[in-house]
Amino acid sequence: MLHIDPHAPLPRAIPRRPSNADGAMFAVALRHARVLGLHDERVLEDWNARRLASGAPCRREASHAAPSNARYYFLRSPEVARIERHPIAPPAPKRYLGFDRVAQSLRHVAIAVNMTMRERLHVDPLEVQVSVFGGRMHIASNFHAGRIREALHLALTDDTLMSGAPRRPAPGDVRNWDAMVASRRVRDIAKLRHRYVQGHALDRVRTAARDEAMAGVGVPAHGSPSGQEMLRQLDDAFDTLRRVLRDAASASPTFRDLVVHTPMRDVPKLASLPPGATETMHAEQCIQTAIATHAQAWHREAVARLGLASDTLIVVPMAGRFVPCAACAEVEAQSRTDGGLFDPANGRFVLHRSSRRIGKAFANEVQHIAQATLAKTPALAAHRAQLIADRFVTAPQTLRAYGTPVVLDYSLDTESESSGDDS
Q1: In angstroms, rounded to a whole number, what is the distance separating the alpha carbons of residues 379 and 53?
Q2: CA-to-CA separations, 373 to 23, 190, 287, in angstroms, rounded
Q3: Could you tell me which residues are beta bridge partners of residue 316?
Q4: Cβ atoms of 29 and 400 closer than 8 Å
Q5: Calpha distance 219→227 (Å, rounded)
Q6: For residue 213, with 0-12 CB atoms within 10 Å meaning exposed, 13-18 middle and 19 or more buried, which class applies?
C-alpha cells in the first residue's frame, strides 16, 4: 500500500506533454482571474486532506492553539511577499449598470460610515461592508461595530462632514491616500443625501438599472433570477435603501430595517495572539456568516415578501470601502460553488459584487474564516476553511490572488479611483 507522509512538502505535478484534452484539465477560479490546472488543485486537495486526517496541526496552531471549531488565516510579512501580484495604477473610469448601481450605493454607505467613524467618533473600523436584500440593509465593520448606527446618522445630518476637502482631488493627488478618501467622504455623503434622503434622481437611476438588468448587464455572473423576479428584487433594494437612509437621517431614527453585524460575537477568540497581531472576522465575512446561519428563514422571508417562487435565487449585492482582500476573495469564491452558501444550485442566495479585483493580503491579522458559508455540513465547512488557511502558507501559487493585478496605492471598492466620473 502506498504511504504518503502528510508532513512531507507539497508534491510537484509530473511534467507531461500537452494534449487536446488539456482544455478539460483547467478550472477558472473567478471570472477574469488566473486559470488553475485541475491536476495541481487535486494534488493540493489530496495532500491537505491527508494532512488534516493525520491530525498534523498547521504551524499557526502549533504555537497559538485555536478552538477546534475556529479556522483562521494568519500571515507574517515574508509570507505575504510570496503571494506574487502585479501592481497597477488606479483604473480608468467605468459605468455602473444594473445591480452594480445598487452596489455603488452600498459602497457610498460604507465610505460614509467609515469616514464618519474616523472623523467624528475617533475610532477606526478599518473596513465597513454593506449589503441589502429581503427588505433590510445589512452592515458590519471589522472593529467598533457598536458605533455604526451613530456614524450613519451623523453622516446624513452633520454638515461639517461636507467641508474640509474638495469634491474631486487635484489631478496630482490621484495616488494620494489622504486626498482620495477625504474627497470620497464629501462626494459619497452628498450622493446619499441627494439620492436617497431627498429623493432626487432616484426614479431615473432605478429605471436605468431595470433596463440594464433586463438586457443582462450588471447582473450576478454566477447565476441570476429570471426577469421579473430580478426586477422585483432590484426595486426592493432601492426602496430599502431609501427607507433605511431616510430613517437614519431623521431626528429620532429607529433603525428598524438596519441590521448591524458584530464580528466575533459567536466565534471563540484565540487564547493568545501572535506578537503585534490583531484579531477579527472581516466585515463581509461577518455578514455572510449571519446569512449562512439564518439561510433558510431569511430566504423564506425574502421570497414571501416579494411573492416569488420558493426556489427563487435572492441576489445579495455587497460592497465596502475596499474590494475583498485576498483571504476574503478566496472564501467568497469557495462559497459560490460545491454547495456553499452562494452556490446557485442551492436555489437560495447568489452573491453579487460590482468589481472583480482582489485586494491585498494583510500581514499580522488573525482573520477568522466564515466557514459556515463554505459547505452545508459543519465538518466539511471546517475542512474547507482549513484548506484555505493552509494554502496561504504552503501553496500561495494556488491562490486566486496570485499573479493578479492589485492597486497598491489603495484598494478602494471601485474601478474608477482616478476618474472624474460619477463614481
Answers
A1: 12
A2: 30, 35, 10
A3: 351
A4: yes
A5: 11
A6: buried
Share of the chain above pLDDT 70, in %: 77
| Cα 35 from Cα 86, distance rounded (Å) | 16
Between vectors from CA 408 to CA 369 and to CA 370, what angle results, nearest 5°? Answer: 10
Residue 128 and residue 229: Cα distance in Å, rounded? Answer: 29
Task: Select from 356, 407, 415, 344 the least CA-distant residue to 177.
Answer: 407
% of the chain residues with pLDDT over 90? 64
> For residue 243, what is its C-alpha cell?
427607507
In angstroms, the CA 53 to CA 71 distance is: 16
List the domain boundaries for the chain.
1-56, 99-406
Contact 288, 295 (CB under 8 A): no
Whole-number Å distance between alpha carbons of 400 and 383: 19
Q: Which helix (H) or strand (E) holds 52?
A: helix 38-53
Helix axes of 378-394 and 38-53: crossing angle, nearest 10 degrees: 110
Residue 123, C-alpha cell as written in the block: 475610532
Nearest alpha-carbon partner for 38 in 26, 49, 47: 26
* Buried b / exposed e along 155-193 (16+ C-beta atoms within 10 A): bbeeeebeeebeeebeeebbbeeebbbbbbbbbbbebbb
- Identify the helix (H) or strand (E) that includes residue 260: strand 258-261
**257 grid coordinates:** 430595517
How buried is residue 241: exposed, middle or buried, by Cβ count under 10 Å (0-12/13-18/19+)? buried
DSSP run (H or E) holding 36: strand 35-37
Q: How many CB atoms lie within 10 A of CB 302?
A: 22
Tens-place pLDDT, residues 321-357: 989 999 999 999 999 999 999 999 999 999 999 988 8
Beta strands in 353-418 (DSSP E): 365-368, 405-406
- Cα dihedral 301→302→303→304 (10° resolution): 40
Q: What are phi and psi of 356, to 5 degrees?
A: -100, -5
* Nearest one of 219, 290, 305, 220 to 259, comparing CA atoms: 290
The answer to whether residues 152 and 161 touch, using CB atoms and an 8 Å cutoff, is no
Output the average pLDDT for the chain. 82
